[in-house]
Amino acid sequence: MRTFLLPDLGEGLTDAELVTWLVAEGDTIAVDQPVAEVETAKSLVEVPSPFAGIVETLHGAAGESIDVGKPLISVRTTAAAGLPEPGAVASGGAAAVSAPGSDAAGEAYRQEERAGSGNVLIGYGTPDNHGTNRRTRAPRRARTNAAALVPAPAAAAATAAAGTVTLEAPRCINPLVRRLARDAGLALMTLTGSGADGLILRRDVEQAIAGAQAPAAETAPAAEAVPASGTDTRSGLAITSRTPVKGLRRTVAANLSASRSEIPEATVWVDVDATALLELRAGMKRRDPDNTPGLMAFLARFVLAGLRRFPELNTRYVRGEAGDAELLEFDGVNLGFAAQTDRGLMVPSIRHAEKLSARELDAEIRRLTSAARSGAATPAELTSGTFTLNNYGVFGVDGSAAIINYPESAILGIGRIIDKPWVVDGELAVRKLTELTLVFDHRVCDGGTAGGFLRYVADAIENPGSVLADL
Fold first, then answer.
1. 442 catalytic residue (yes or no)
2. Where is the Peripheral subunit-binding (PSBD) domain (predicted)?
3. Which of 45, 197, 207, 370 is deepest in the core (most CB within 10 A)?
4. Number of domains forming the structure of the chain
């Protein structure tokens, strides 16, 4: 009997919500077959089994929250299930995957995790996590027919008799990497890992599929409201539903609350004539329609140039346990940008964005937006920003008093670009205008710095040719 513990799905997350089971007790499963769909605070993930055999126990019901390191599923893999003993066929060191504390290999991986490698062995999870399971809503219908994923018992028995069945997973510890390989039709057993002790990493899979992109994950189901009865004592109205705040929404709520409660924010804004920028881009598009960056890429390029002149807005204010405070300065800019998805507002970030051209920024913006909307963005991509750019003009609004993406120090918002009357060279003209709004942490800089940065970006939009020439 092997018990698979819920692994750390990334960035030290402590729990995940069990959205739906993809298998049932008594089913025969194969290595790497998805057995459950879970939702963390950052993404929706199908969790594959590292064992083959017969499902003995499903630990938990759909809708429950399961702590990392707690049992997820128990699988009967011994001869009692009509399959060979695991030790007879385990390959690539995979036999080390078992209950915590059972062997030296597992301990080695736990030591690696404590050292901060970010690698977490499936079946081990994060040590010393404790919590209480709580039923939060009725089970959702599985997106995948579990029966279609289960190999026929006769076929499984025939394979076992031949002595070729694989009972445990190869040395690939990340569910997202397993999914990438599975979607590409790639057998992990055929790969040689480039990580420590032959560990299969994401780059190994990407190289094996010759740069092919993994299919986008399905959009996460919308949160379901749990019907409830009763009357609200404050309003006197009947309560028709109760929707638990969890997963991504809970994380967003916590960050927004922390931002408003801890950061003394201030706001400055300016109207900007974007006519010259639109004309510049239109000219580029006529000459090269398939290789012209979007407006967000140009705006990102101007923001990065502004942060180079006013680096205070790319710092972080931190307070120590003794009450002392300091400002952290960074060697580079991880530029976050707000992306609206079916699961809510996400802020993926472009690492070392200051090193990229407008075309490269455009490609990264498109890639990360697609990943965030499909649920494939990694926790690191969603939590590593140092400054955020928010284009709320796509919602048809002119301005917004945005909330800083905690724990960053500033966020720049861009409103819609519309025709408005504007004075040019002493005469009234119709121009393409937008509004820039900068919200900043007043602890990291004063209004002069914030105003200087905002004016620099505004001047770059109004005179893009001269600024782009220096980038």
1. yes
2. 172-209
3. 45
4. 2
